[in-house]
Amino acid sequence: MPHRHVNMPASDHFQQVQYAFTQHLRDPENVPTPADIEPRRMAIYERLLFKNVENFLANGFPVIRKLTADDRWLEMIRDYFKHHQARNPLFPRMPLEFLEYLEHERNDPADPPWLLELAHYEWMETAMAIDPREIETPRPDIEPDWLSSVPILSPVMTPLVYQWPVHMIGKDYQPETPPDQPTYLVIYRNREDKVGFLELNPVSARLIALIRETPRTGRELLEQIATELNHPNPDVVIGGGLDIFRQLFNLDIVTNTQD
Question: b/e map of 202-234 (b: 16 or more CB within 10 Å)?
Fold first, then answer.
């Protein structure tokens, strides 16, 4: 019986070549260059692709990049490049992919303990900038009556709680142990599309959380906080709460009220 040569389907062959190509790109030191590709050309492409990803992540996480030595930074990006299976092909979402790598795949005891939270803090600025939602509530001509009406939060704001004071970490402040109290922040985008962060105290953080829970008047919200604090003079809490409302209103974090 004559021998029959069975050709591999073109689609299967292409997938094998594509797999070999991407595996080499991920780990050029340990995976050989695909047989049909000139090594010099492959090396140029590999360096170009790696440099593009490295530059993009450096721009997405400028504080982390500044605080990380060059060799440590390149090692981390190479490890990300080698191991992380990205699910989103869009470049603006690459910082989120890197954040997932730090959270679920990276395990280097030499990394600073605040690395993941700082990365999340830096990513949130990008996330808020590209959030497609807008503030649709018209800005009132006069300041609303916060106590007798229901405050409305901006759709482009997010309260954040961190173990580490991520907004303070920099060249001159890199703590080794977290403070006793958590760090409360809110990130927002105002009507002029500028992104900002505001540090909150426990009362203002609790106020924003209560506004998000269920529609209630400002007075009801502040009275609940006074009860939770077991404050002997609720009017003091209400007066301080009015100052918080005004600050949040000026930043477009609270945009208006409804009856």
Answer: ebbbbbbebbeeeeebbbebbbbbbeeeeeeeb
Helix (H, G, I), strand (E, B) or coil at 185: strand
Tell me the CB-side half-sphere exposure of residue 50, using CA atoms within 13 A.
22
Q: Residue 166: is it exposed, middle or buried by C-beta count within 10 angstroms (0-12/13-18/19+)?
A: buried
Collapsed DSSP state (helix, strand, coil) of residue 86: coil
Asked if 198 contacts 188 with a C-beta cutoff of 8 angstroms, the reply is: yes
Determine if the pTM surpasses 0.85. no
All residues at 6 or more sequence positions from 22 whose CB lies less than 8 Å from its CB, including other chains: none
DSSP 34: P
Report the C-alpha dihedral over residues 41, 43, 47, 53, rounded to 10 degrees. Answer: 90
Q: What span, in angstroms and rounded, lies between the C-alpha atoms of 247 and 158?
A: 16
What letter would DSSP give residue 98?
H
| pLDDT tens, position by position, 39-96 | 666 666 567 777 888 999 999 999 999 999 999 999 999 899 888 887 766 667 789 9
Instruction: Check: CB of residue 84 under 8 Å from CB of residue 139.
Output: no
